[in-house]
Amino acid sequence: MWLVRPAIPADLASILEIAGTQGARLSSTLPKQKETLASKIQHSEDSFAGKTNPEEPPRFLFVLENTVTGEVLGTAGIDARAGNGQPFYNYRRDALIHASHELGVSRRVEVLYPSHGLTDQSLLCSFAIKPELRTTDAFELLSRARLLFIAEHRERFNARVVVEIQGVQEDDGSVPFWDSLGRHFFNMDFQTADQYSGTLSKTFIAELMPPNPIYVTLLSPSAQKALGQPHKLTVSNLELLQREGFHAGCYLDIFDAGPVLEARTDNLRTLVTSDRKELHGSHDDAGETCLIAAGEGNAFRCTLTPVAETLEDTVKVPVRTWQVLNKSAGDTVRIAPL
Q1: Contact at 8 Å (CB) between 231 and 190?
Q2: Which candidate in 43, 116, 153, 231 is catalytic?
Q3: Is the pLDDT confidence value at 138 over 60?
Q4: Residues in CB range of 266: below 8 A, 6 or more apart
Q5: Of 250, 302, 207, which is closest to residue 91 (Cα–Cα)?
Q6: β-strand 275-282 against 314-318: which pairing, if any?
Q7: Which sign does the torsion angle of CA 221, 225, 228, 234 carry?
């Protein structure tokens, strides 16, 4: 069975290995440095336990585990407050009208404005999974388990949720938007800047990025074409999030111009369709495959299981599911259709 649970220090080596296989930008908030990642896992443990202080907003990191082998094959995260106490930078896409009455000329020009308007909204992040699992139900389980956690701990999260989708990157490693804009101000390659973004204070972005609006027409043709477009390996994740109710707004990632998706938390499909039910046992695998989650804080567990509903408005699941969730008959669980 597949299980999504909070990350623990013993997962460090596995998560480092996953981060190393993702390639640049496929998980910018998943550090590839041992000490930094260990600190992130510790912060996550404190967050699940409710031990963080106001200066360090909660950040939750989950892992996908194969319960048969014990292997950790994916990660997913939630930052309760985007920016984590600092500005959360993006570009806001807008337009200006340049007109001359004397010449009879009027032209609409696209402009990118530096913005931190999404600061403090809840952020889905750190999504990374082994390539062989991208077309399996484990992919959806890992992504949506976070939303069941939000449903069970609604008071910890903002009224809106955002998620950055990685932008266009060519097969040779070049990033059109970065190469046309950011490189000229940061004097470093994309991979280095992205690494700093995931491990250091974000003040370096404000210090080095131009504070003025960027006229899109001054960017290279390939950079203009990349605006708001996802990395080819993130399309399945984008489509899953769109089914949840996320939509692309006017914001773009400040490094690669990938789309930033937005949604009202309470309108997300998983939150709307999930229900709390009383758990009972079943002697077979009859029923519809659903996501099932249980446990608060560090005890949170989520898996996929056949679910049969009863006339008493309870649910029956195989006993092995009880064991994976660390629950027993009569306990309350949250169910969501796959």
Answers
A1: no
A2: 231
A3: yes
A4: 159, 272
A5: 250
A6: parallel
A7: negative
231 is catalytic: yes
For residues 327 and 61, the model is more confident at 61
> How far apart, in whole angstroms, are the C-alpha atoms of residue 272 and residue 245?
11
Integer Rg of the chain from CA: 22
Q: Assess whether pLDDT exceeds 70 at residue 110.
A: yes
**Do 2 and 303 meet the contact criterion of CB atoms below 8 Å apart?**
yes
Residues with Cβ within 8 Å of residue 30, at least 6 apart in sequence: 15, 18, 19, 22, 37, 75, 77, 126, 128, 198
Report how far residue 152's alpha carbon sits from residue 141's, in angstroms, rounded to the nearest whole number: 16
Distance in angstroms (rounded) separating the CA atoms of residues 111 and 98: 12
- Strand 90-100 and strand 2-6: pairing? unpaired
Q: What contacts 32, CB < 8 A, 6 or more positions away?
A: 16, 19, 20, 195
Per-position b or e across 152-173, b if 16+ CB within 10 A of its CB = bbeebbbebbbbbbbbbbeeee
Nearest to 228 by CA among 170, 167, 175, 178: 167
DSSP single-letter state for residue 53: -
Over residues 23-77, the pLDDT tens digits come to 544 445 677 788 989 999 999 999 999 998 877 899 999 999 999 999 999 999 9
Tell me if 309 sits within 8 A of 315, measured CB to CB. Answer: yes
pTM, two decimal places? 0.91
Q: Six-digit token pair at 40?
A: 């992130």
CA count, 13 A, side-chain hemisphere, 304: 18
**Separation CA 128–CA 64 (nearest Å):** 10
The neighbouring-strand residues paired with 5 are 63
Q: What length is written for the chain?
A: 338
22: three-class secondary structure by DSSP: coil
Helix or strand holding residue 253 (H, E): strand 247-253
Query: Which tokens is 232 given?
Result: 């080819």
User: How many other CB atoms sit within 10 Å of the CB of residue 222?
Assistant: 15
* Tokens 């059109």, located at residue: 176
Q: Are 216 and 224 in contact (CB under 8 A)?
A: yes
* CB-based contact 81:57 (threshold 8 Å): yes
